[in-house]
Amino acid sequence: MLTVHTPLSIAPPSSAYAHDVSAPVASRWIHISGQVGLNDDGTLAGDAEAQTLPNNSQ
Fold this sequence. Notes:
The chain has one helix at residues 48-52, and strands spanning 3-5, 20-25, 27-32. The chain is mostly beta strands.
């Protein structure tokens, strides 16, 4: 059984997919979708460093 994870601490998916899905078979595997770092207001964070920081509205 797959378990869909959509954390409330990050922007919601923009279409019918999840941020990650885990498949517990013998051990837990998590497949993470590609993400871009957004500011709290939905704008793209300036660079790679800014995109990895939590709550990076500026």
